[in-house]
Amino acid sequence: MSDTYKPEWAPEKDSDKFASRVMFGVKGGHDGMPDSSGENSQTKRAAVIKRKRLTVDDYVEGVLNGDRMILSRAITLVESNAPVHFEVAQQVIQKLLPYTGKSTRVGITGVPGAGKSTFIEALGTKLCEAGQKVAVLAVDPSSTVTKGSILGDKTRMENLSRQDNAFIRPSPSGGTLGGLTRKSRETLLLCEAAGYDTILVETVGVGQSETTVRSMVDFFLLVVLTGAGDELQGMKKGVMELADAIVVNKADGDNRPKAMVTRAEYERILHFLRPATENWKTNAYTCSAYTGDGIMELWDGVVSKFMEQGLENGVISERRKQQTLSWVYSMVEEHLHNLFYRSPSIIEYMPRVEDEVVEGKLSATRAVQELIKKFSATSLKAGIDNDITPFDIK
Ligand SMILES: Nc1nc2c(ncn2[C@@H]2O[C@H](COP(=O)(O)OP(=O)(O)O)[C@@H](O)[C@H]2O)c(=O)[nH]1
Ligand SMILES: [Mg+2]
């Protein structure tokens, strides 16, 4: 073995005299130093993979082999806003598509502090211990504004992240809601291709995130708290109508009796609501993410039953078809929207039209006709030729 190491940025065909060769350190295995032939060589291999520029086939093969590092890199590619990454990512997704669709996709929502992350950690750990592969994703639209995210979860899911069968990925940050949706959905597909049996998607209960996540999962769980009289009042009926189950968390210690009461209250309300899924009755349950009480009961008795039944009666495959189609439509809308509003001729023409409309010189309908005419005549073709791209790509 050569005792020097050639950095990747050194010229391919340099002579051995290249000035930047680096000598390996002292051989380990003594004085408490790690042995370079053991774990260290693994780390070295990992470092090489990390640096190496991967081809589309490298990504595809790595993901299909369940290589977590390559999966991570593929997700980074999907999340990237660089056009060149976007293109490679699309080729990877296209090739992996036949291997997707086999997971149980579960969305978990609820107000901050409801215990979603703790619940996911408890459930995920149990599923891993039972031999399943579990991926945890997060969708946090606030991260598109603040660039912060519920990333804190990653460090908090300590037990779960120690499991070999677990993969945890925080919410992509930055960009539009449309961009976030695409990135999250494609990340989910990558995880499926990598063989994760269950994909748990946590989302913060704000804004449009619930509908976004509802539109990418099979089963949607709403985590709520006790003493939620106010919350019940304030909670949008809409969110409850998205849920396939509601679980009152923190049903432990002194809080347990209250949790039972709250559960009954939710049951009462659910009675009047339209269930989220055909042939499925949405019920309320209690659990403690802390002690683990009720968690596997909810999984085995509710989620698994839902999947079994839904796969048998076709509800799940129908839901997935509709989800993919409406995703396509919403991307088309977004693309057209961007093509229009970002096209130079519209940017130039718009203020004049606005003025005329506001001053009552031009009717709204006529204004739209004029704008579209202008757009089709000039920017539409130019825009497509110049590839004004949608999806947050810069
Ligand atoms: N007593 C009790 N506390 C819990 C339980 N689940 C979560 N918590 C606590 O509630 C707080 C918020 O939990 P977290 O999982 O971060 O909530 P999230 O914002 O919905 O993800 C944390 O301090 C948790 O320790 C539970 O089942 N019982
Ligand atoms: Mg959380």
Automatic annotation (TrEMBL):
InterPro entries the UniProt entry points to? GTPase_ArgK, P-loop_NTPase
In terms of Gene3D superfamilies, this protein maps to: 1.10.287.130, 1.20.5.170, P-loop containing nucleotide triphosphate hydrolases
Q: Which cellular component appears as one GO term in the record?
A: cytoplasm
Checking SUPFAM superfamilies in the record gives:
P-loop containing nucleoside triphosphate hydrolases
What keyword terms does UniProt attach to this protein? Answer: Hydrolase
> What are its E.C. numbers?
3.6.5.-
Q: What's the short name of a Pfam family annotated to this entry?
A: MeaB
- Going by the record, the broad EC class of this enzyme is hydrolase
Q: For this protein, what is any one GO molecular function term?
A: GTP binding
For this protein, the record's PANTHER family field holds: METHYLMALONIC ACIDURIA TYPE A PROTEIN, MITOCHONDRIAL (PTHR23408:SF3), METHYLMALONYL-COA MUTASE (PTHR23408)
Q: Which family is this protein grouped under? A: Belongs to the SIMIBI class G3E GTPase family. ArgK/MeaB subfamily.
Kindly provide the name given to this protein in its UniProt entry.
Answer: Methylmalonyl Co-A mutase-associated GTPase MeaB
Q: Which gene encodes it?
A: meaB
